[in-house]
Amino acid sequence: MAKQEDLFKNVVSHAKEYGFIFQSSEIYDGLSAVYDYAQNGVELKKNIRDYWWKSMVQMHENIVGLDSAIFMHPTTWKASGHVDAFNDPLIDNKDSKKRYRADVLIEDYAEKLNQKAQKEIEKARARFGEAFNEQEFVTTNARVMEYLGKKKEILERMARSLETENLADVKALIEELEIADPETGSKNWTEVRQFNLMFGTKLGASADSAMDLYLRPETAQGIFVNFLNVQKTGRMKIPFGIAQTGKAFRNEIVARQFIFRMREFEQMEMQFFVRPGEEMKYYEYWKNTRLNWHLSLGLGKENYRFHDHEKLAHYANAAADIEFNFPFGFKELEGIHSRTDFDLKAHEQFSGKKMQYFDTELNQNYTPYVVETSVGLDRMFLAVFSNSLKEETLEDGSTRTVLQLPSVLAPTKAAVLPLVKKDGLPEVARQIIEDLKWDFNVAYDEKDAVGRRYRRQDALGTPFCITVDHQTLEDQTVTIRHRDSMQQDRVKIEELRSIINSEVSMRNWLMKM
């Protein structure tokens, strides 16, 4: 646990030191759980967004994009259920005065049971080697069965209690499990109560006539209210999808863990409209497709897992999360939900406007069902960034900090370094920059010894360093250094574009899906 905490501190520190993420309004002591993406962070974030958009929209003929407004008519949120049901169970510790989400406290307890079971499994794997049968061990080992059985029992009870609004039982469960305040160890808890997460605001020139609005807590509703607009103007046929990226806002009870849980965040969502009765087929399809998208980035298959929801949202008939192994454990990265026809029917009811689709093949009208994929862009940033940050010990005993970002996502694809700041080398380096910048984000760096410049670019995640030296003036060749292997090759200047492109092009990375 201490090692994980140290890793997380390094992630936060590195993000600031190298211009990825700053605390918002830092000169005024900042705002809790609000962050600014700095000069390198904004590039990495944009590249993640583009990688998602390319795979989701450009690579699917039946998926189109949308950019809906943050402000929406307030009845939207009544229809969607957010006004009445967008709550988190809140609990306070009387001694520490700290506030927590009750369900998160219970889930963290259950995850510790799961970790104990996994330790037993790993010990057995080490003991039995290739002869180890994990499935048989899990179903026969008393200790593992006890851990996993208790975890299942706890989560199912919590889900039932939250489903029926039995908040007294949620508190009773916390007390029975003797869950303590993570910071102080106190078990002196208040009652559990519901807390609505939406931010309220007003629209209008005067206080008397202003309309009460909400900052949108999700981007999905902008897609649903535009369903018929997109379908008719785009002549879309079921099944088809509408994709959107954009900001959402939630007044989180416990906003913590850096950019994992923020009050202002960005989502990348796609709503896929299907015939009633076919939703489970597409639910399974999108589960597999989305996992393959994550795996294409090469962050390690062992760092992902599916988690099926015990408690379903009011609109869903199936839901699963793709969880990622963050420095603080496995947590939700992306959700795949079968939303049924709840949203379109609700908006039809509240607006009085028909939200149905005429299927020419079936010769009938119906309300489409929806399968949703929704990934947090900020969480995706944290997953990529934290997994890529490495401390390496080299052959000579020295160490280097390297940010081994997937090269397709790296903020800067190549840094061009003149060996010295004279003899015409900077001019040649500038010419290379002028040529490459049409296709890639490239940087020029002439400060310090070339070895220190390599280390700086390693820490920034730059896949290639191109060094211009005196030989360059003679034969138009340069040294290109690869970030991960530190291998150096002598190549012609005219070959640089194709070498970089082969490593960073979205085509090559998405072909892995």
TrEMBL record:
<dbReference type="Pfam" id="PF03129">
    <property type="entry name" value="HGTP_anticodon"/>
</dbReference>
<dbReference type="Pfam" id="PF00587">
    <property type="entry name" value="tRNA-synt_2b"/>
</dbReference>
<keyword id="KW-0436">Ligase</keyword>
<keyword id="KW-0175">Coiled coil</keyword>
<comment type="subunit">
    <text>Homodimer.</text>
</comment>
<dbReference type="GO" id="GO:0006426">
    <property type="term" value="P:glycyl-tRNA aminoacylation"/>
</dbReference>
<dbReference type="GO" id="GO:0005524">
    <property type="term" value="F:ATP binding"/>
</dbReference>
<feature type="domain" description="Aminoacyl-transfer RNA synthetases class-II family profile">
    <location>
        <begin position="177"/>
        <end position="418"/>
    </location>
</feature>
<dbReference type="GO" id="GO:0004820">
    <property type="term" value="F:glycine-tRNA ligase activity"/>
</dbReference>
<dbReference type="GO" id="GO:0070062">
    <property type="term" value="C:extracellular exosome"/>
</dbReference>
<dbReference type="InterPro" id="IPR002314">
    <property type="entry name" value="aa-tRNA-synt_IIb"/>
</dbReference>
<comment type="similarity">
    <text>Belongs to the class-II aminoacyl-tRNA synthetase family.</text>
</comment>
<feature type="binding site">
    <location>
        <begin position="250"/>
        <end position="252"/>
    </location>
    <ligand>
        <name>ATP</name>
    </ligand>
</feature>
<feature type="binding site">
    <location>
        <begin position="265"/>
        <end position="269"/>
    </location>
    <ligand>
        <name>substrate</name>
    </ligand>
</feature>
<dbReference type="InterPro" id="IPR027031">
    <property type="entry name" value="Gly-tRNA_synthase/POLG2"/>
</dbReference>
<dbReference type="GO" id="GO:0004081">
    <property type="term" value="F:bis(5'-nucleosyl)-tetraphosphatase (asymmetrical) activity"/>
</dbReference>
<feature type="coiled-coil region">
    <location>
        <begin position="107"/>
        <end position="165"/>
    </location>
</feature>
<keyword id="KW-0963">Cytoplasm</keyword>
<dbReference type="InterPro" id="IPR033731">
    <property type="entry name" value="GlyRS-like_core"/>
</dbReference>
<feature type="binding site">
    <location>
        <begin position="372"/>
        <end position="376"/>
    </location>
    <ligand>
        <name>substrate</name>
    </ligand>
</feature>
<feature type="binding site">
    <location>
        <begin position="376"/>
        <end position="379"/>
    </location>
    <ligand>
        <name>ATP</name>
    </ligand>
</feature>
<keyword id="KW-0030">Aminoacyl-tRNA synthetase</keyword>
<dbReference type="InterPro" id="IPR036621">
    <property type="entry name" value="Anticodon-bd_dom_sf"/>
</dbReference>
<comment type="function">
    <text>Catalyzes the attachment of glycine to tRNA(Gly).</text>
</comment>
<feature type="binding site">
    <location>
        <begin position="260"/>
        <end position="265"/>
    </location>
    <ligand>
        <name>ATP</name>
    </ligand>
</feature>
<feature type="binding site">
    <location>
        <begin position="332"/>
        <end position="333"/>
    </location>
    <ligand>
        <name>ATP</name>
    </ligand>
</feature>
<keyword id="KW-0067">ATP-binding</keyword>
<dbReference type="GO" id="GO:0005737">
    <property type="term" value="C:cytoplasm"/>
</dbReference>
<dbReference type="GO" id="GO:0015966">
    <property type="term" value="P:diadenosine tetraphosphate biosynthetic process"/>
</dbReference>
<dbReference type="InterPro" id="IPR022961">
    <property type="entry name" value="Gly_tRNA_ligase_bac"/>
</dbReference>
<protein>
    <recommendedName>
        <fullName>Glycine--tRNA ligase</fullName>
        <ecNumber>6.1.1.14</ecNumber>
    </recommendedName>
</protein>
<dbReference type="InterPro" id="IPR002315">
    <property type="entry name" value="tRNA-synt_gly"/>
</dbReference>
<keyword id="KW-0547">Nucleotide-binding</keyword>
<dbReference type="InterPro" id="IPR045864">
    <property type="entry name" value="aa-tRNA-synth_II/BPL/LPL"/>
</dbReference>
<keyword id="KW-0648">Protein biosynthesis</keyword>
<dbReference type="GO" id="GO:1990742">
    <property type="term" value="C:microvesicle"/>
</dbReference>
<dbReference type="InterPro" id="IPR004154">
    <property type="entry name" value="Anticodon-bd"/>
</dbReference>
<feature type="binding site">
    <location>
        <position position="101"/>
    </location>
    <ligand>
        <name>substrate</name>
    </ligand>
</feature>
<feature type="binding site">
    <location>
        <position position="218"/>
    </location>
    <ligand>
        <name>substrate</name>
    </ligand>
</feature>
<dbReference type="InterPro" id="IPR006195">
    <property type="entry name" value="aa-tRNA-synth_II"/>
</dbReference>
